[in-house]
Write a structure and sequence with these properties.
The chain has helices at residues 15-27, 33-47. The protein is an all-alpha fold.
């Protein structure tokens, strides 16, 4: 698909999403922001077959990463 044919999406992440993006950047340090978001969206969709963290309510600013996320390991590439 040509870039000119792609849909443009503006995104303003909540605090928890920004924290998750920072942690993901440690896993994939060579990825630019767009590649990282693409990767996370695709991986997130695949991961939804398992139970995701509970994100209750409509106020995204109250969502938090689960404590079990822990430290982010180094990336293999």
């Amino acid at each position: 698909m040509r870039k000119s044919d792609r849909q443009r999406i503006d995104y303003m992440p909540c605090t928890a999403a920004r924290e998750a993006l920072e942690m993901a950047q440690c896993l994939y340090p060579d990825s630019n922001a767009q590649a990282l978001l693409d990767r996370l969206v695709i991986m997130g969709l695949v991961a939804m077959q398992w139970k995701p963290p509970s994100l209750y309510g409509r106020d995204r600013e109250h969502w938090r990463l689960p404590a079990s996320v822990g430290d982010v390991p180094a990336s293999d590439g």
